[in-house]
UniProtKB/TrEMBL annotation:
InterPro entries listed in its UniProt record: IS1182_transpos, Transposase_11, Transposase_InsH_N
Top-rank lineage group of the source organism: Bacteria
Coiled-coil regions listed: 165-221
Keyword annotations of the record: Coiled coil
Domain Transposase InsH N-terminal, residue spans: 19-111
Pfam families for this protein: DDE_Tnp_1, DUF772
Record's protein name: IS1182 family transposase
Sequence ranges assigned to domain Transposase IS4-like in this UniProt record: 238-458
Length: 476
């Protein structure tokens, strides 16, 4: 048996007569073309949507947007690679009708129109809604950390700078003492050694000055760290693999795992982003009520209360925090709150009443205890660290109790959360290879992530309804 052979390179071939013949009916470029042609780019915020009356004609923003959508969909994000692909890739040649913008024009378009990409993401989301691709019943909110164009060595926290200044002082003291010794010495080679030490001292002093200047800068700005390459990027302390990066928040509809809302921040934690992210998604889905599930990184009383006020029913597992948990003593969940009597019932069947009240962070905190009962309790070793157990309660904590009751009835919702959010994050980082930003600055990475989330949704929608189904929806 022989292998399948290709044709001879010098053989004359009857190739298809037009580029159109190379692009099948179900090729994604046909949808990109129809979708972008249908957009109101001026309303979306794109620049130069009308050609200039004079001067050399520029490229249409429609063609440039098509190029980027194709690139992000096919893991080609760099402007230089897009320039190359536009000259040799038949799908792109079809999409751009043979246009060949240079890499600078391509890069400038993404930079200048970074704020408009979110409107394109939302326009596609509206199309998905028209196709009934959203369940509009349950959202999963989560955040993922994506690398910034800033290495760990170019990021400085106050602690790191303080440590450096201290170590510089120690080294300076050591070098100066060595220099004194060398100056006193009379043996041959002393001059050369003195010169080397003086050079070292100058270098350390210079680096110390730079660190001091950065510390002053931190003090003046009130920030906790400085990133030299991308000033907006932050060290993601809890995510060592990412190092310095950004936090992309998404709300994913559970029906087909499509991203409904997304935004990027440089906050290291997810705390406080639940109501904001789920609220925007609920408005976009046009529903009066919706359920939202998130991991314990979102467990924050005020945020949970804000969800309830906005018509969002939250499901967030309670994190096991506090000294009692750390010491292996009874966690707070073992104490049952009695709303009617405003007291707690402890594992020893005793009643803990209000003892103190104070204001903390604008909220009233109430402490409950029963020192007399604890004094003679057999469970004390498992429960109290001091002479009696104290339980504190935020005045609005009823919202957390209601959520705990809901979760007890519907525990499987936490597994649905994992399956729902892991799909987009896994696809974006692994399959789409977009776990790191190419641009610098919060505004620019927000634009970049809008393209990433849009093309993730586009890939999902093509799998669900096909290219022709999407084109029909655009034209309907
Ligand atoms: S130590 Fe106090 S709070 Fe704890 S179980 Fe005993 S009586 Fe209840």
């Amino acid at each position: 048996m022989a292998y399948i052979e290709g044709h001879a390179r010098d053989q004359a071939l009857l190739l298809p007569a037009s580029v159109e013949d190379y692009v099948s009916a179900d090729n994604a470029v046909r949808f990109i073309d129809a979708f972008v042609e249908d957009l109101d780019l001026g309303e979306a915020g794109f620049l130069r949507t009308r050609p200039k009356a004079t001067g050399r004609p520029g490229y249409s923003p429609r063609d440039m947007l098509k190029l980027y959508l194709y690139g992000y969909l096919n893991r080609v994000r760099s402007s230089r690679r897009l320039e190359t692909e536009a000259t040799r890739n038949l799908e792109l040649i079809w999409l751009l009708r043979g246009l060949r913008p240079d890499f600078k024009t391509i890069a400038d378009f993404r930079r200048d129109n970074r704020s408009a990409f979110k409107a394109v993401f939302r326009a596609f989301m509206v199309l998905c809604r028209k196709l009934d691709l959203f369940g509009r019943e349950l959202l999963a909110v989560d955040g993922t950390r994506l690398k910034a164009v800033n290495s760990r060595t170019r990021n400085f926290t106050k602690a790191r700078l303080d440590k450096y200044v201290k170590s510089a002082d120690e080294r300076l003291e050591k070098y100066l003492a060595q220099l004194d010794d060398a100056d006193r010495g009379e043996e041959a080679g002393t001059t050369r050694r003195s010169e080397a030490l003086a050079a070292k001292i100058a270098r350390v002093r210079e680096q110390r000055q730079v660190s001091e200047a950065m510390l002053e800068q931190l003090k003046a700005s009130g920030e906790s760290q400085i990133s030299l390459t991308d000033p907006d990027a932050r060290a993601m302390a809890a995510h060592p693999k990412v190092g310095v990066g950004y936090n992309a928040q998404v709300a994913v509809d559970a029906k087909h795992k499509l991203i409904v809302e997304q935004h990027v921040t440089n906050a290291g934690s997810d705390l406080g982003f639940l109501a904001e992210t789920a609220g925007a998604a609920k408005d976009l889905l046009g529903v009066d009520r919706i359920d939202v599930v998130a991991d314990m990184g979102y467990y924050m009383g005020e945020d949970i209360a804000a969800c309830e006020r906005a018509g969002i029913t939250p499901y967030v597992a309670r994190p096991q925090r506090g000294t009692a948990v750390g010491d292996g003593r009874f966690p707070k969940e073992r104490f049952r709150y009695d709303e009617a009597a405003d007291c707690y019932h402890c594992p020893g069947n005793q009643r803990l009443d209000t003892r103190y009240r104070w204001l903390q962070g604008g909220h009233i905190i109430v402490q409950y205890s029963n020192p007399r009962a604890c004094g003679g309790c057999e469970l004390k070793a498992q429960c109290a660290r001091g002479s009696f157990r104290r339980i504190t309660r935020w005045e609005g904590e009823a919202v957390l109790d209601r959520m705990a009751t809901r979760l007890a009835v519907r525990p499987e919702i936490l597994n649905i959360r994992r399956e729902t959010v892991e799909h987009p994050f896994g696809s974006i980082k692994q399959w789409m290879n977009q776990g790191a930003f190419l641009m610098r600055g919060l505004d620019k990475v927000r634009g970049e992530f809008s393209l990433t989330a849009l093309t993730y949704n586009l890939r999902r929608a093509i799998n669900l309804v096909g290219v022709q189904g999407l084109i029909r929806a655009v034209q309907a």
